[in-house]
Amino acid sequence: MGLGEFKVHATAGNARRATLMTAHGPVQTPVFMAVGTKATVKAMTPEELKDCGTQVVLGNTYHLHLRPGEKTIAKMGGLHKFMNWHGPILTDSGGFQVFSLSQLRNMSEEGVEFRSHLDGAKHFISPEKSMEIQMDLGSDIIMAFDECLQYPATEEEIDKSMALTYRWLLRSKAAMTRKESLLFGIVQGGLSLKHRLKSMEQICSVELPGYALGGFSVGEPIHLMHELLPHVAPKMPANKPRYLMGVGTPTDLIIAIDSGIDMFDCVMPTRVARNGTIFTWQGKVSIKRSEYREDSSPLDPECDCYTCTNYSKAYLRHLFLSGEILGSRLNTIHNIHFYMKLMELARKAIEEGRWEAFRDDCLTRFVKK
Ligand SMILES: CC#C[C@H]1NC(N)=Nc2cc3[nH]c(NC)nc3cc21
Ligand SMILES: [Zn+2]
After folding, report:
1. Looking at beta carbons, which pairs linking 305-314 to residues 24 or more positions away fall under 8 Å?
2. Which of 85, 146, 182, 342 would bridge 186 by S-S if both were Cys, CB 3.0 to 4.6 A apart?
3. pLDDT of residue 92
4. What is the pLDDT of residue 100?
5. How far does Cα 231 stand from its chain's mean position?
6. Does 92 participate in catalysis according to the annotation?
7. What residues does ligand 1 touch, defined as CB less than 6 Å away?
């Protein structure tokens, strides 16, 4: 397969089993991508990530630009070498983080001037600067620089923001000159089907190796996303990967795959693991519960991860209550393994013509508790 080629091997309704070829190897989809915002997936080594079935790790332009700086990472051989992760890396463009993390100073056609949330220093990011940062990092999949509107917003504000995001996509494409990298556009439009379809028309009119849906899971009731997805995702180019940004729970992933989404990322499995919430095939487990005080069983009897193979709920509860670092590590290993196993089984179910049954079984299992 050539760089950027997206080959669909099997379908089940809107669900697809495909392969995307990147400069650091093939990505089997549907895929869940582990979030490594500051050049690390928190509490896990790259070897542990690989052992859990991780294919793609996410990095972030905003955070890495502020610290340690993309020029430093470039001098150290690029982000793959710097973090010792030699599989595909996708980097977000910084738009979302500037709007959600920094003290926003000044928005213009040119770009965004903002103050660092770390030290208040002034920075400026534009489509060209975002592309330069992501190319310096050596990213395999580069996200276009988009304007991330805060919701709720008026019709006029949404239209204006979509038009700016479109103009910034054209500038991103012109500035992304690294031939090993794949540039993905980002469809905006909030929760209005009319605006989503209009943004999709604009963004997908630009020839690109992949397209993302942004602007969900930014605080809106998740059922609105579930209702919108079947009307939007299947209308995106069928021969290109579709990436749903920042989503989601195991239930969200199954529903989105059923609507035709191929790629996902979410901080949830790693974040909630550190807070003692464990995803299992029987629903969620809160390890701090007193019922687990002398429970010798693993987190999930149906899981074969390192944590479930070697440790009891009693021990993991003890580590959590004691605030031990090992507790975060073992819980994260399990949650990441769970998400990767869920994607592996989804890929097999689509390949083997069992998707509908697998989908329904998951939705029943995950709704408990
Ligand atoms: C509006 C918009 C938008 C999207 N734009 C870019 N560049 N990154 C994103 C990252 C996200 N993470 C989450 N949820 C945690 N929603 C996201 C949406 C975006
Ligand atoms: Zn496990």
Report:
1. 305/52, 305/333, 305/334, 305/337, 305/338, 306/48, 306/51, 306/330, 306/333, 306/337, 307/331, 307/333, 307/334, 307/337, 308/334, 313/285, 313/287
2. 146
3. 98
4. 85
5. 21
6. yes
7. 92-93, 95-96, 143, 146, 148-149, 186, 188, 214-215, 217-218, 245-246
